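In keeping with the milestone schedule agreed at the kick-off meeting, the structural modelling team has produced records for the first pair of proteins. Each record is given below as a sequence line and a structure-token line. The laboratory manager (R.T.) confirmed that both were archived under the project's standard naming scheme.
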Amino acid sequence: MLNVKEAEARAAALVEAATKAGADAADVLYVGDASTGVQVRLGVLEDIERSEGETIGLRFFIGRKSATISSSDLSGEALAALVERAAAMAKEAPEDPYAGLAPESMLLTGPGVDVDGDDGCDPAPSDLRDRALALEDAARAVPGVTNSEGAGVSAGRSVIALATSHGFCRGYSTSGYSASASVIAGEGAAMQRDYDSHNVRHYADLEPPETIGRRAGERAVRRLDPGKLASGVMPVVFDPRVGGGLVGHLIGAIKGSAIARQTSFLVGREGEAIFPDAITIVDDPHRPRGLRSKPFDGEGLRTAPRKLIESGRLTGWLMDSASARQLGQSPTGHATRGAGGAPGVSATNVALLPGALSPDALIADIRLGLYITELIGHGVNEVTGDYSRGASGFIIENGEIAGAVQEITVAGNLIDMYRTLAAADDLEYRRGVNVPTLRVEGMTVAGA
């Protein structure tokens, strides 16, 4: 795998070769990855894996025609053939009035924001093994845990470099570490499983393995002896582990491509109040050590923090250059891409900001409701906003979380759900999309 400077040079050289071969415009993305992972189960080392790979992708433009081609072979002969094939493909491609590089005036210039995304650490496989063993031991030590699906710890590094024919050439690297365990509680047909995990950019930020393991074990035990919940319309409370999905559906609905295709339930609602006034949702690509932090987007545009929802109101769309041209607007620095295709759109580090109430206070007035810790299936219609998911979790009775329940279905419409959404004060930054405990009124719950 190349280092950042080598990757920048390789990308720039391939852009130069494309322009010499007749490209009116071109860009090149290099992606290199290396990772080591360790898996243990029942106190025994099961597997150690080491993987490395690199891919380089070229977009070759002739007017409004374009072709994209990628290769994992970075030899001179392979890249020369890559350029030749891309040129031939572009000549035969259909015209696309929205195709093209990002506006030159919006490219990142000068020093980018240091997001502290690479700690330079390279832990030994033995360190990863010891951490995984300690993690699983802690989970199995919880009374009631009877079996284990295993624990794993991994470490990796990625190098990204982007070069364009209008002068952009930058790269950066990120490190990443993860730890997880999944265990089983109970016996026979009464068994239940649950897990815990932690993902970080800096190795020093990983939670102690004992903390992750103990939480996994306690979650599994807590799910034992599930009861029944009568069907009805009631408040539903989403644990932070699953509540981020509600914001994820919002992100999908505000992508410029979905708006341009008229395939979003939020078409025509730009600037409208779709959440209560107390709700603000932010996207921060500059969060230090954030899981999705980056100084520039997939087209070389400067990234910047942005409020997606401000005091309940939808502020606009997330756009790459192509969708911005379709909508007659400007790109927002949210382009994302792999080496093998054209840019798409994605948010970065998203957070629904916390409210004023504790989780206990948020549910204190619920006589009968559902607290969800797991969602199943993909029953969300992004065109209409209709929402129907399988769920498991706990009954809320008289303001307190009671026994476990499973095989529940919850249904509603995202527009209606967003209008009644309330947030607790327990926001933690552990994921790409971070939310506190969330409460939604009046959902239809089908019990077992």
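The second protein of the pair:
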Amino acid sequence: MNRIKEVLEVKGIKQKWLAEQLGKSYNMVNGYVQNRQQPRLEVLFEIAKILGVNPKELIKAEDSN
């Protein structure tokens, strides 16, 4: 699971802008944001760089319950 959606909301950044910065389609980024698919590690690091956060802030551990 990732926290991209939460970080975008906190920073007031739109998915469309992130998609443009990454050079990826809106649909691809929307898949990441909605947790339908997970970005490759390299892409996750690029997202963190663009958003100005530590990559660890984009990762959420699954509940073990």
